[in-house]
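--- STAGE predict ---
source: upstream dedup step, 1 unique chain passed
mode: sequence only
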Amino acid sequence: MKTLKTNRTLAFLGMLAVASCDDGTPTDPAVEELFTLAETIELDVLASTGSIDVALEMADASNIVASNRGDVRAEDGRRFHDRARSRFTDAQDDLARGDRRAAIDKARDARQLVVRSIEATGGQRAVVAMVERLEAVASTIGEDVDSFVNPAEVAAELNVIALSARDALSRGDTARAGERAVFGDQRTHDRRTDGRRGRDRGTDRTGNDRRSDVGPDRAELAIQLGVTAVALAERLLENDVLDDEQTRYLETAHELLEKARTAFAEGQFGRAVHFAEAASWSALKAVVLPGGITEEELREMVDLAKSLLEEARAAIGDAPTEIEVSMFERAQRLIEFGENAINEGKQRGVGPVWRGAVISTWLIG
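--- STAGE serialize ---
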């Protein structure tokens, strides 16, 4: 059984790699079969209304922030948002009629419209931030056993999507890069549950395990960590004169936290976790703007995280609770993992280091 599972996972990664090719018309019959299977992953996401809502609400958060600031670009963002919603509906209609190719194409169009909505108010650097976030999620999700049945499998999926997004970005194709980033975000949500226990048990169209149950305790903790992340970012920036982009990321973090709280109140715990974690990332982007981080900034972030970890060790004392032990060990793993990645020249290591710093701050209280 283990061999079969491994073979299925390897085949799946091959499917995604083929699906991420630009022309989408493989010539070898064996490759054609893999490409067809790869389409089912996108179809599985399209069949999840919750995953569509997540994509639209991420754009909505950006537009709300722009509107609150009197930014005239918010109107453009809303127009793209509304077009994306309509295009997703068209894609779902095609799926219901059995026209899978049209459904996939329209879903991709819809995701590109989501990107244009976010880009309208955030510029091209907002797309860079989306790709960076997907890379960070892919690199750390393997330890999130509370949200996924098989986090390592989810991480493998997201890494392939993230590589495709980064490749498009390196070629200057921001539309494709953003579309892949939105798809990765949707897939992350799709592999979680919405909190209604047992509703999505079983397997999806690819044969992967369906998402585990995310209950209220997990969602409440995620929101607390999101609040902590925003507070930590504001503390780190309190003596700085913030530019427009930094302010926007902080305001977006607050808006995403509101969406997380709303989802929690409605019993949609998977969505609550999703938005809370997005808020934490937006807070990080206020501290370290997208598009690159200096060696000095990386070292400062690692030093900060290590210092906070030691403070957390002292705060939980000699008789920590079970949750304190679990969270401390998670922070320790994240910081170590991130530092090792940074030492290997991978800037994405800043993501896990930040998460470790946030958890440590939460433990300090």
